[in-house]
Amino acid sequence: MRASVARFSDGPAHRRRRAYAVAMLDRLDPAALARDAAAETGAVLERIAAAGTGREPVDLMSAVARPVPVAVLGRALAVPDDDLTARVAAAARAYQPDHDGGRDAARRADAAVDALAAGDRSEGSAARIGLLVQACEATAALVRNGLRHGSVQAALRDDPPVPRTRRVRNGAVVPVELRGHPFGAGPHECPGRAHAVAIASVMVDLLWPRAFFFRY
């Protein structure tokens, strides 16, 4: 998958692969994603309350911050998968070229990507999975940091969810600092800024009164 997505390519290949992701995102209304995220977050909070776990803090990232954005984007992108969050999270952990999770993590990531692709190994399929993978940890971290700082905008200004990343330049993978530009800039600027902010903002608004339920 890394060999087929825009993030780890440049030149004509990057432009062609990025176009797939941009076209998918252009079909998604951030306001509609926010409404779905609100409903999904409410459902998760109801399940937590019904389980009687309110007496002990619940892990924010695994209980809400990862699964809600992944579920919302998965539905919007028509990715049918009963185990979507676990598979996307497994792929996300191995997404960076220098990940050191070991052979078991690599095998889990490969199996997750195979399941998400469902036999479609096209660049369009890779772009769809890439959107889910890149949204998984980054949007979760934006929700967490938004709760820490009181709002998503404050988090983007003072504590960006991804302070640094990696890009491909002239065929080499290079580190890129993102402070001051939390969604990047130039040809590799994240095309999903409006979507991520819409999802994370409504989640922070709903979680803020219940922040004491969670550890993060």
From TrEMBL:
A single MF term (Gene Ontology): iron ion binding
Superkingdom of the organism of origin: Bacteria
PROSITE patterns, alphabetized: CYTOCHROME_P450 (PS00086)
Annotated InterPro entries: Cyt_P450_CS (IPR017972), Cyt_P450_sf (IPR036396)
Family to which this protein belongs: Belongs to the cytochrome P450 family.
Protein name, as recorded: Cytochrome P450
